[in-house]
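Suppose you are handed a protein chain with no further information: no name, no annotation, nothing but its sequence. What can you learn? This example shows the usual starting point.
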Amino acid sequence: MKRLVWSYGIGIVAIVAVLSFFFMMKGQTEKAVVSGNVPKAHAQGERVKQPISQFQAVQPHEADNEVKNVKNNMPEKADPPPFLVYIDPGHQSQANLEKEPIGPGSAETKIKVSGGTSGVVTKKPEYKLTLEASIILKQLLEEKGITVKLTRSSDNVDISNRERAELANNSKADLHVRIHADGSENASVKGFSVLTPAEDNSYTKSIYQSSLQASQAILTEVKKDQFVEADGIRYRSDLSGFNWSTVPVTLVELGYMTNPEEDRNLSDQAYLTKLMNHIADGVAAYEEMKKKKVKRPIKACD
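A reasonable first move is to predict its three-dimensional structure. Written in structure tokens, the prediction is:
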């Protein structure tokens, strides 16, 4: 009987010891899980998956940073060059009657710079009027954010029509605007007009369409003014200043200085500024067309 009691007591002690050890180990494991030392899955007897950190996975915020870094390191797009208008105030104080080819490779020649006309009432020479008008136009265009250069800024120069075209060519101008005034033996003839390269001119085939777009844009703006008589567009293939040009070119005839009314108007600062404002609006409209690459239908203008 004593042996049976003894054996029973030992068994109870053994069971208590095993249970104590089991609960002690379970407590340590749970502490380890909480502290992060042992994966919870391992503690529950499951298969342990390899920590994702060992594969150097990129967290979402890190991916965003990578994208930002790539964008920051990409070269910035260069701003487009400014729109450049080259204005040529026609003529000069002294005509140059020497000859130059009318176009590249041409055997036909023409005088380098003619003397121009003059005011029947004001007696103002054309070269003075064209410089006054060009300076006004330059200021108006610059106020619109357009870059402007002049072929001349004084009257005492000697620049041929070919050389004036080449100045615009060498600067890769977006538009070459030639400023002139008309003259006629008939004093009653008057009117603003625009000259543009002819379609069948072999020298200006590459710039015909753009030149006509600029000419049309200018004429459209001038025609909005009911106080300015506008004749329309004339197509020319005999002008050295056109034939030597490799950039779009147009020539405006401000009016007839041989007509008393227009001669007085063109020497009136308010009228001249208003007229040049219309021309500036036309140039700006042409610039906008070029930016949008809008192809307007090309047709002859009356």
